[in-house]
Amino acid sequence: MRKKLILDLDTGIDDALAIAYALGSAGDADLIGITATYGNVAVPLAARNALAVLHAFGRDDIPVYPGIDHPIAPAKLPLMRGTTPDERAEAYRRWQEGGEDGWQTDTPWSPSPGSVAVHHPNGIGGAVLPDSPRQPEAPGSAVDFIIAAARECGPDLTIVPTGAMTTMATVFRNAPDLKDSGINVTLMGGSLTLPGNVSPAAEANISQDPEAADYLFKCGARTTMIGLDVTHQTALTREKAHEWAALGTPAGDFLVTMTDYYIDFYVKNQPEIHGCGLHDPLAVAAALDPSLVTTFGFNLQVDLEGPFRGRTIGDRSRVQDPDKHTQVALGVNVPAFLDRFMQRVTAVVRG
Amino acid sequence: MRKKLILDLDTGIDDALAIAYALGSAGDADLIGITATYGNVAVPLAARNALAVLHAFGRDDIPVYPGIDHPIAPAKLPLMRGTTPDERAEAYRRWQEGGEDGWQTDTPWSPSPGSVAVHHPNGIGGAVLPDSPRQPEAPGSAVDFIIAAARECGPDLTIVPTGAMTTMATVFRNAPDLKDSGINVTLMGGSLTLPGNVSPAAEANISQDPEAADYLFKCGARTTMIGLDVTHQTALTREKAHEWAALGTPAGDFLVTMTDYYIDFYVKNQPEIHGCGLHDPLAVAAALDPSLVTTFGFNLQVDLEGPFRGRTIGDRSRVQDPDKHTQVALGVNVPAFLDRFMQRVTAVVRG
């Protein structure tokens, strides 16, 4: 049966590939909306890029909802802004209890130099992609859109968050009934059995808002985690990506330019990947077909302070609880995923 | 078929329970020797305690071989002795290339205050246990004993190391042919999906000699890791342990005194365990019957510097290698293990 699908993206190179994968999976899922979060880029650019990519693929029918545009606690500014661990914990607590957020500075969130290096300041590898003729929905509308869709669709709804988890955590905080609604949340983020990619502890998406991810893992929601554990096993080679050039379509040229930039980064910084990571597309693929990955159940937390900040790790206080809230993907059928990825994306690029 | 079994112990409270479990498993395995490593206590005390425990259980036929008595690199003394990361890396390299060891100080290894707190200065919870009438074998004889046994028994040999991995790593460094000999190495140590127990990163056994553990995971040997991932799921309650008191035997009284001390520590410091961890006995049980645990294959490394020193984590350079050298236990059949533990240990205590 075809699922209803929402992508919560910080679009982003691999986010753009995830959109292509989702559009190429029309037999499995109906992409009913994209919500914009931050991480690779800020929310306004994430929304702009999602609209532009949809336009390039001829899908101006899919709405884009901007989400929460900053983390719960001002964690990236502990020295610059003089916040302390206690102040961050207090911000997190205020937020858990229903405060709008814990952010108490006037400095807008902006991507880290690392994110800019990976995705280019324009988020899509410097590729020139025209603006969509459309505008995003109202600022902050992502939370209400997801809650309404979850109430309507229940277990038929799959959400794939691939950036900061702030919007997703806010959904469950604002609508606690959704924890048991059967909606499927398959997130790209975290790293349980490998070092992180922004610190020895932290994976990029989790590091953007560790408090939000911690809340998501502990709040009772059922999640599937597609982290570096599996996404570092799947790589797109330059040779494969260049197959899209032969299609002679603007969409194909766009993807080649974008992935060339991404692969250049990986060749220089993570040559052991042998290509570029297919983080977000793998999350979409696993959400639509869980048989692509092998999962194991855990109850997770996110470390919030010190050099371990942003680490996804088992919650020792729940290790003896037989009810595991997060299925963590540890294995992946690499050839099956790569074949499907190329088939589905190529079909969309061909038009 | 009955296996040949060697326990490489830093005896220790749960090591003493592991000896009892092994002796109670005579139908599965023939305990052909105990080798002494360090961690809970220093090697001489580990050998003394192993002999004393064997004597208490009426098994003066099993030889005890002292192993390497200090880590490869003087890692515990970086500030005190002025060693640097570069000096430690150099010590590790010298050792890998066949040097006797990298230890370049005149300070003997001694257990950390944490180990002393967990196991008491006498290693067995302050219980009074008479010396064995026997002496240990020659100092350092553990390496040669294990190599000879592995050459003789091949896949019929199971080794269960439960302390610092120095002796085990030296075995594979000195006899590289054993990597493909089919011997089964099921180690208690590490923590892949939970925080460590001596730091947010490090589990105690690995932290004693991170270089040795790193070598063991990378050298090509086939290992099974029984870490905190599963040992924190299995706990011995005070109520269960006190069943041994009713047996009215000196061995039973010894185990009750010892485990009371251990459980006191856990109640105070890790109440979420609901008893005391059965780390080492679970490793023996899983070595003898792998069906008690659920494992997943990984290629591991050990972090060697900074706040992550001693962390067991996936080796990113080998994540795409389909050949996984370590099976990490992530799940455990808790009721089956606890039943078997009580049956086998109680049978030995009853005499």
From TrEMBL, chains A, B:
Q: Which domain of life does this protein belong to?
A: Bacteria
Q: Which GO terms describe its molecular function?
A: purine nucleosidase activity
Q: Where is the Inosine/uridine-preferring nucleoside hydrolase domain?
A: 5-339
Kindly list the biological process annotations in GO that this record carries. purine nucleoside catabolic process
| UniProt KW keywords | Glycosidase, Hydrolase
Q: Can you quote a single GO CC term?
A: cytosol
Q: Protein name, please?
A: Inosine-uridine preferring nucleoside hydrolase
Q: Which organism is it from?
A: Bifidobacterium breve DSM 20213 = JCM 1192
